[in-house]
Amino acid sequence: MEEQQVPTTFERGTDGPKVIVAGLDGSESSWRAAAYAAGLARRQHALLALVYVQPYLPGGAAMGVPVSDAETGMAQQLLAEIWEAVERLQGAFHVRWEFHTFRGDPYNGLAMAADQLTADAVVVGASERAGHRLIGSVAVRLVKTGRWPVTVVP
């Protein structure tokens, strides 16, 4: 009888998703994506990693805006809204979740988060910006990267 080899490297999605990354930026579509990802995570008994990518704001610093305060404020606001939803749904809906912040542009930040958190899936909201029709949205860029299944929530 031949002995079976156990894979020693990370293998995505072999027994269902273990980590689902959802991009969250405060937009309506990102909140819908987070809710959809939470439902997936609950049904799959996966960890929901909610990720906010803090943008670099070099122009804001030149205008006297304290960049770190503005970025931290948005992350704190998102986290407060997440806790509010968790408390509202307590007892009826349970999902393991974490909140992470990364720095950079949304595409690179989400890609870095998915890689570092060994995501099995990425869920993002559809872009609400008209300019993305010309240069490509974060969702399209993530799909083209091809390292994770990507779900785009309208």
Automatic annotation (TrEMBL):
<dbReference type="InterPro" id="IPR014729">
    <property type="entry name" value="Rossmann-like_a/b/a_fold"/>
</dbReference>
<comment type="similarity">
    <text>Belongs to the universal stress protein A family.</text>
</comment>
<protein>
    <submittedName>
        <fullName>Universal stress protein</fullName>
    </submittedName>
</protein>
<dbReference type="Pfam" id="PF00582">
    <property type="entry name" value="Usp"/>
</dbReference>
<dbReference type="InterPro" id="IPR006016">
    <property type="entry name" value="UspA"/>
</dbReference>
<feature type="domain" description="UspA">
    <location>
        <begin position="18"/>
        <end position="154"/>
    </location>
</feature>
<dbReference type="InterPro" id="IPR006015">
    <property type="entry name" value="Universal_stress_UspA"/>
</dbReference>
